[in-house]
Amino acid sequence: KDKGVELILPVDVVVADKFDAEAESKVVDINAIPDGWMGLDIGPKSVEIFNKALADAKTVVWNGPMGVFEFPKFAHG
C-alpha cells in the first residue's frame, strides 16, 4: 500500500468435487471451500471486482488464467 500498489484477490470461487469437465460445482466464499472440493474458477463477485479494476487500470501484471479454461464450465473467470 505504501507503494501505491493494489493487490486484488478473489472473494468467491467456483468449486468442484473433482477435476473433470462434468464435475458437480457450486459457488462459495473464498474462505468456505468444502473439504474435498477444489477451486476451478473465480466466482461471479470476483469477476465483477476484477472487471471494475481492469476498466480503470493503467498497468496490469498478470500470470495465467483465472480458471480451468479447458473445461467450459470453469472458463468464465
Question: Which key phrases capture this entry?
Answer:
phosphoglycerate kinase activity; 17% helix; single chain; alpha+beta; 77 residues; 1 helix; 19% strand
How would you describe what is shown here?
The protein has 77 residues and is α+β, with helices and mostly antiparallel strands. It has one domain (12-74). It contains 1 helix and 3 strands, in the order βββα. It has one helix spanning 44-56, and strands spanning 12-16, 25-29, 38-42. It has a 3-stranded antiparallel sheet. Strand 1 (12-16) and strand 2 (25-29) form a beta hairpin. The protein is elongated and about 40 Å long. The relative contact order is 0.25.
What is the total number of structural domains? 1
Our Rg estimate from Cα atoms comes to 14 Å
| Major sheet | 3 strands, antiparallel
Overall number of strands: 3
Q: N-to-C SSE series? A: EEEH
Query: Mean pLDDT across all residues, rounded?
Result: 94
Shape: elongated
β-strand amount: 15-25%
Kindly state the percentage of residues in helix.
Answer: 10-25%
End-to-end C-alpha gap: 26 Å
Biggest sheet: strand arrangement: 2-1-3
How many alpha or pi helices?
Answer: 1
- Poorly predicted spans: none
By secondary-structure content and strand pairing, the structural class works out as alpha+beta
Concise description?
This protein has 77 residues and is an alpha+beta fold. 17% of the residues lie in helices and 19% in strands. The protein is built from one helix and three strands, in the order βββα.
